[in-house]
């Protein structure tokens, strides 16, 4: 598995679909992105809170591969980093191929454990009509394919900036494919 690079970091202290780009973000162990509305020990995404607000927050950090923006641009959609609510935009790393439990070393100190796939929702079509079909579909076997990024929890905090390297540490043993979280 090749390593990648952080291209953009984003956060938002209020509920909004998009997140403004920042010069840096600070990851806090066990919580997520400092000052971000989705940071916390328990679930913060509105749909999850409505189901059970005591569940652990497995979606502290949202990462999207910048190559997705190239792909949707080829289909006529203009999407920029932060537009889909991600905290970290990457290049050169196949995020969707990572196994559950992979560790992403971001910059000098931060470590994020991959928990699963982002489950794209109808808000994507509210942002840009027709975009949902670009980021979720079916493969040749009829299986659902989710391409709107991955989610993780912060194991070790630290500052993350555009240009920071991402080093992947794969878990031992048989790898479990990512499932939606």
UniProtKB/TrEMBL annotation:
Annotated GO molecular function terms are: catalytic activity; molybdenum ion binding; pyridoxal phosphate binding
MOSC domain: residues covered: 19-169
Task: Give a Pfam family name.
Answer: MOSC
Q: SUPFAM superfamilies given for it?
A: PK beta-barrel domain-like
Q: Which PANTHER family match?
A: METAL-SULFUR CLUSTER BIOSYNTHESIS PROTEINS YUAD-RELATED, MOSC DOMAIN-CONTAINING PROTEIN
Report what the protein is called: MOSC domain-containing protein
Organism source for this protein? Answer: Streptomyces filamentosus
Taxonomic lineage: Bacteria, Bacillati, Actinomycetota, Actinomycetes, Kitasatosporales
């Amino acid at each position: 598995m090749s390593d990648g690079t952080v291209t953009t970091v984003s956060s938002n202290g209020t509920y909004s679909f998009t997140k403004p780009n920042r010069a840096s973000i600070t990851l806090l162990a066990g919580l997520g992105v400092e000052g971000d509305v989705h940071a916390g020990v328990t679930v913060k995404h509105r749909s999850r809170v409505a189901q059970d607000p005591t569940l652990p927050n497995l979606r502290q950090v949202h990462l999207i591969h910048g190559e997705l923006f190239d792909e949707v641009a080829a289909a006529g959609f203009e999407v920029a980093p932060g537009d889909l609510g991600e905290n970290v935009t990457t290049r050169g790393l196949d995020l969707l191929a990572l196994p559950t439990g992979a560790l992403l070393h971001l910059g000098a100190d931060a470590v994020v454990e991959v928990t699963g796939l982002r489950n794209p929702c109808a808000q994507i079509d509210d942002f840009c009509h027709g975009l949902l079909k670009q980021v979720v579909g079916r493969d040749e076997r009829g299986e659902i394919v989710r391409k709107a990024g991955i989610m993780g929890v912060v194991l070790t905090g630290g500052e993350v900036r555009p240009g920071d390297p991402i080093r992947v540490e794969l878990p031992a043993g048989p790898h479990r494919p990512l499932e939606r979280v």
